[in-house]
Amino acid sequence: MVRPRIVVVEDEPDIAEVIAYNLRRESFEVFTAPDGERGLDLVRQHLPELVLLDLMLPGMDGLEVCRQLKDDPQTSAIPIIMVTAKGDESDVVKGLDLGADDYVAKPFGSRELVARVRALLRRLPESSEAEVADNGLGVRICIGGLEIDPSRFEAKLDGQVLTFTATEFRLLHFLASHPGRVYTRERLVRETRGENVVILDRNIDVHVRAIRKKLGEDREFIHTVRGVGYRFRDPD
Ligand code: CA
């Protein structure tokens, strides 16, 4: 079995050690770097399946590491989970806008960390294959009683057809295609922009509110991540 490789960039030795220990126990291959420069070297050398990136690093900070990885075609597709201090939402937003995929806030439990890593590794190959296979129309999604069929432009909840505007539909389909993953408003605008569909940044909240209303407020398909953006509920 090929073990997925993870590069951990973390300057606090105790935390790096705990992270590495927990990931190795889950049979990942782990490389650790104590600063951004060495982190970049490790990523370029090993081209891992995932990078776990502390944002507060001596010298080059995590956001700069993220920027460089996303700017380099050789490393741009490698998913990045940012590790942040609690309450650092503005850096989380910046990182997600740069192309990071997710974040965990310190202090986090090892179970939460492993779950985030697994969720991201599970998701990525599927979604990229799906994008190739369906010529941009998007994949049909079934989650928690909700069915979204982009080829028919149709959404059903418990078998009942729901009516969405084009923008709401695209937004819902995009979020549901990436369950458990957090998106900033800016990223959502970028990702759901299509022909004849113009979403203004401030309108994302309005669209999400409308979608929630149609799905039923109590169903909680779309979670608000305070200060950051939105996340579709984790897969069952
Ligand atoms: Ca740090």
Describe the structure.
By secondary structure, this protein is of the alpha/beta class. The chain has eight helices and twelve strands. The chain has helices spanning 13-25, 36-46, 62-71, 89-98, 110-133, 166-177, 185-192, 203-215; strands at residues 5-9, 29-33, 50-54, 80-84, 102-105, 141-143, 146-149, 154-157, 160-162, 182-184, 222-225, 229-232. It has a five-stranded parallel β-sheet, with helices on both faces. A four-stranded antiparallel β-sheet has the order 6-7-8-9, with helices on one face. A three-stranded antiparallel β-sheet has the order 10-12-11. A hairpin with a 3-residue loop joins strand 11 and strand 12. The longest helix has 24 residues, at 110-133. The chain is elongated. It starts with a strand and ends with a strand. Residues 124-135 have low confidence and may be disordered.
